[in-house]
Amino acid sequence: MIKEEAGVGRFEASGGGAQFVMFMKVQYVATLKSSSAFPLINLKGDFFKELPYTQGPVLGHGMSGDVILITRSDRPSEKRVLKRMVFKCRASERTAKMLFMYELDTFYRTDHRGLAKCVLAARCPDYLAIVMKFYPLGDLDRSLFLLPAGSRHWVAARVSEAVEYLHMKRIVHSDIKLANILLDAGFTPVLGDFGLSRYLTEDVLTVAANKFGGTREYWAPEIRSRDASQQVDPFKVDVYALGVVILSLATQVKPHVDLDYQECAKTSEHVTSHLRPILEATLEPDFKKRCTSDEVLKFYEDIVDNACPECEVAPED
């Protein structure tokens, strides 16, 4: 069981290209316990001394710690990834606990082929740990130019499906970007990193623009001003970031704060006439006119149904 209480407040921390902001009036996990999906354990010592895992190289650095490749000591071929949220000071401990709490809450609430899954979570004296599946091709930010041309729309379709699933569950991801899309050996994507994700109750329809975190290159126009008086649709903010990802997949150009995404979608020779309308709809500057994640998913479902020659999509697995 998960005990939930209404959270009120705001806390920001920067690092790793993202900002963490706690939404007002969201639900958060007050008490975390093991679930049928994965165990949550309390350790008296270091993770690697208490459990049968061997520490490998650091694969990357996040907002509150490192991402490390680990292996089972008794099964060396079994590789996993450990996200280690380190307590460097009181402020970083508070940040780590918030991110850990929200990330596990999303894992508890979701079960979808397009989302990363937790294998094990642990509280250690000096840090918190989340163990997940290892994706050999890393993230899409690193592998964008390795992606086969014929699979780009398939990857976009899978990510769109995952985003729509989250939105149906009333979960806002808040940091959709290439670096948070992981690829297995067959280039099958999963959306991960739920530290900024939030479950919103049915009564929360808008959020103040200055309550959003995420990564600047993916920010929707309505949250760039950080105007506390402007109320925006949090799900439409996700859709804009999804549009930036789809644009990057189509053009093979990585996001940049100075890039005019709308203009790029309209003029790039790499954006086909079939793809252009959905890109313009996701990147619509006015969030009230911007499409929903459901409409993006329907676009890709229509591609499959109509066998669009411009937009090759891999068959269902």
Features:
globular; 2 domains; six-stranded mixed β-sheet; Transferase(Phosphotransferase), domain 1; alpha+beta; kinase; three-stranded antiparallel β-sheet; ATP binding; protein serine/threonine kinase activity; about 325 residues; ATP-binding; Phosphorylase Kinase, domain 1
Could you write a compact summary of the structure shown?
The chain is an alpha+beta fold and 317 residues long. The chain contains 9 helices and 17 strands.
Description:
Helix 4 (152-168) packs across helix 9 (293-306) and helix 6 packs antiparallel against helix 8 (276-282). The chain folds into 2 domains: 3-133, Phosphorylase Kinase, domain 1 (2-Layer Sandwich); 140-306, Orthogonal Bundle (Transferase(Phosphotransferase), domain 1), CATH 1.10.510.10. The strands form 6 sheets. A 6-stranded mixed beta sheet has the order 5-9-10-8-7-6. The protein has a 3-stranded antiparallel beta sheet with strand order 2-3-16, with no helix packed on it. Strands 1-4 form a two-stranded antiparallel ribbon. By secondary structure, it is an alpha+beta fold. It has helices at residues 47-50, 90-109, 140-143, 152-168, 221-224, 234-251, 261-267, 276-282, 293-306; strands spanning 3-7, 12-15, 18-21, 26-31, 40-42, 53-61, 65-72, 79-86, 118-123, 127-133, 171-172, 181-183, 189-191, 198-199, 207-208, 214-215, 231-232. The two termini are 33 Å apart. 30% of the residues lie in helices and 24% in strands. Strand 2 and strand 3 form a beta hairpin. Mean pLDDT is 85; it is low at 1-31. GO terms for molecular function: ATP binding; protein serine/threonine kinase activity. One of its GO terms (cellular component) is plasma membrane. ATP binds at residue 88. Residues 53-303 form the Protein kinase domain. This is Protein kinase domain-containing protein.
